[in-house]
Design brief:
The chain contains seven helices and five strands. It is an alpha+beta fold. Strands 1, 2, 3, 4 and 5 form a five-stranded antiparallel β-sheet that branches. Helix 2 packs antiparallel against helix 6 and helix 3 (54-67) packs antiparallel against helix 4 (74-81). The radius of gyration is 18 Å and the shape is globular.
Length: 190
């Protein structure tokens, strides 16, 4: 399958379950590969990832629900909890600060570049999971959940949470994607 075909299959799957079509080991391998292969500025390698599976998956989404003190519907949280796992994406602020010190002319850009690399990693992992017939979506419950997530996984304070990707077996697919006039967003000039 070509990369553009894979990208076209990657969508937000909200109806997921714990029935993975592949092993947890295969999920780990794909996430590790995506993390290793995703480029970033100055080869900074600032991305950090936690994969929550099994009991940790369930506890994670209960902790997220509790962090919002009921302000997010239980049904919505339970939809993500129903998945087989969640990939949590971070970048390490210590790595960014170190490079800011080494290259002061670019200091203000390193947080932006770390975010860009993290976005590429999220997309790469999401697309690779879909190639395995695993459904996923990207969620952004941070910064409300930051402290609870750091405590749950005993993470360094320097790891800045960027996004959460619940994944699982595909219980139902998304609606067809509406076609757009791409010429409104892409201009080619010669």
């Amino acid at each position: 399958m070509g990369i553009l075909e894979s990208m076209g299959r990657r969508r937000s799957y909200y109806q997921i379950n714990k029935e993975l079509p592949v092993t947890a080991e295969k999920i780990r391998e794909v996430v590790e590969q995506a993390t290793e292969l995703t480029p970033d500025a100055f080869n900074m390698r600032s991305a950090r990832v936690v994969v929550a599976l099994g009991r940790k998956q369930d506890v994670l989404w209960d902790v997220i629900y509790d962090a919002f003190d009921g302000k997010v519907a239980r049904e919505k949280i339970d939809g993500f909890k129903a998945g087989a796992g969640t990939v949590l994406y971070f970048y390490d602020e210590d790595v960014v600060r170190n490079l800011q010190g080494q290259f002061p002319m670019y200091a203000e850009n390193f947080p932006l570049w770390a975010q860009q690399a993290n976005g590429m990693l999220q997309f790469a992992a999401w697309t690779a999971l879909r190639d395995l017939e695993v459904g996923a979506s990207i969620q952004h419950y941070n910064p409300v959940i930051d402290e609870a997530v750091h405590t749950l996984f005993a993470l360094p304070a320097s790891w800045k949470l960027i996004a959460q990707m619940p994944f699982g077996g595909i219980a139902a697919g998304p609606e067809p994607k509406e076609k757009e006039d791409i010429a409104q967003r892409v201009k080619v000039q010669t």
